What does this fold into?
Amino acid sequence: MLENMQNKKEVQDELREISPLLADAKLRMRPDKTLPNNFFRRQQEVILKEVGLLNQGRVRRIRLAWLAGLAASITLVVIATRTPQPNDALDRALSGLEEEAMEAYIAEESQYIHTDYLVRDGFLKSMEQ
Amino acid sequence: MRKLKLEGQYSDDDLVARLRSSKTRHKAYTELLDRYQERIYWQVRRIVGGHEDATDVTQNVWLKVFRGIDGFRHGSTLYSWLYRIAHNEAINHNKKNKKHILATSQLRTTPSQEDGPSSERIEKLIQGALLALPDRQRMVFEARYFDETPYLHLSKELRISVGALKASYHHAVKKVEFYVRKHAE
It folds into this structure.
């Protein structure tokens, strides 16, 4: 602040020595016209956007987000397909059973009620035995 | 008086090198704008007059600067290069819009006040005088008279000795004074 004041005084003193007319004119000069708030910041954004730099950053971020999303999707698909699903085999074995046989199974009248056996050979086959 | 940005992280030469590298370009552009945007705006505004025109012209200036940075040769300094582009763009803008705000005939017909010419009229006369100055004198005059740039800083920016700068300023002030006296009568 003090430095600015000193500099201002130096400029004015020097000018007065060379040309009192211009020194007076400078003192009477209108102050800088006011500018809209954050004008330079906003103009900077507009300029950077126009030269494509702002977009470059944005596009890079979008690309990264897109790649991250793709990687996450692939990971999910891999996990879903590789994870063993034990109930599937049992469901397949039980589906399509005749109602009567199913009832016997539920009432534990069947001789072969071990789940693993049912799964391996199928319920009807075990009943035939 | 607006604040002059005197210091930056990089010298102008380093900044130019960073502007030319795709890795550092983005930050370098921002740094360049931080350093010179305000000065260029006011330089242009003094010539074109209104805020809207000054905004359009300065945007064009920066686009030209960014597109032309690869062609910038170190024969001149970065600031004198920017200054020249801004000056030319502002003058071209006025020509395109057929603005002759500083025409001598217009200035002569402006009624003078009893206590001398108004500050607005003097400002216009100074601008008229500046158009007739050689590039270096005009640049030094604007930096010193309007922006109050210290000689030492200007010396680094333009790579001209302080003594030579003082001489340029002295000549410029004398010429401007002569022009103002002549047209204020």
Summary: Chain A has a mean pLDDT of 74.
